[in-house]
Design a protein that fits this description.
- By secondary structure, this protein is α+β, with helices and mostly antiparallel strands.
- It has two domains: about 5-30; about 35-175, Protein Transport Mog1p, Chain A.
- It is built from three helices and nine strands, in the order αβββββαββββα.
- It has a seven-stranded antiparallel β-sheet, covered by helices on one side.
- A hairpin with an 8-residue loop joins strand 7 (about 125-135) and strand 8.
- The longest helix is centred in the first third of the chain and has 26 residues, at about 5-30.
- The protein is elongated.
- The chain starts with 5 loop residues before the first helix and ends with a helix.
Length: about 180
């Protein structure tokens, strides 16, 4: 009695190939790290000790992300709807623009942001505008930075403006300014 294995081998080979493809893809995915190389240093997003607390993608307004040092807001003086309730934070907002960087910054200053310190610079070939400001609602200083990449502007703010968080703030900005 002769048994034919020809009908059995083709499905077995297809299963083996599928397992290898899926396994190889999973291996490559797991090996990829959320770090990027910039000037020879590793950049992690979010920086160590920071949590992605809040994010929103609103087509008409752009994308926003809030990084905080704490996982939840401080209870007591507020109900969590006020942004200051989250304590130390880095806010990131991106949107498309049609103005030049200079026109955009002029409009922002004209619309009510009056920075006490302001400076133009470049990072990885992109124009940046940095400033330190306070608002009428809160007299705590905030560091702000606008990064212009093509037809996009990334707005970053560090609240409160504190030396101990500036390196993390720069790390986040550098992450977005990678080429």
């Amino acid at each position: 009695m002769k048994t034919s294995h020809r009908g059995f081998i083709v499905p077995l080979l297809l299963i083996i190939i599928a397992v290898l493809v899926v396994g190889g893809g999973a291996y490559v995915y797991v090996q990829q790290k959320p770090n990027v190389q910039s000037s020879g240093t590793q950049i992690t997003f979010p920086p160590n000790g920071w949590h992605v607390h809040n994010s929103a993608d609103i087509p008409a307004l752009g994308t926003s992300v809030m990084l905080t040092k704490q996982k939840t807001y401080s209870k007591g003086f507020c109900d969590g709807t006020e942004w200051a309730c989250y304590g130390e934070q880095i806010n990131i907002h991106s949107s498309s623009i049609t103005l030049t960087p200079e026109q955009y910054v002029t409009k922002i200053i004209k619309d009510g942001v009056f920075p006490s310190v302001q400076k133009w610079d470049t990072l990885n070939g992109y124009k940046i505008f940095s400033m330190t400001y306070t608002t009428e609602a809160n007299d705590v200083s905030t560091d702000g930075l606008y990064l212009f990449v093509g037809d996009k502007v990334y707005q970053f703010s560090l609240y409160p403006s504190a030396e101990k968080n500036r390196s993390d703030f720069q790390q986040v900005i550098t992450y977005y300014a990678k080429k």
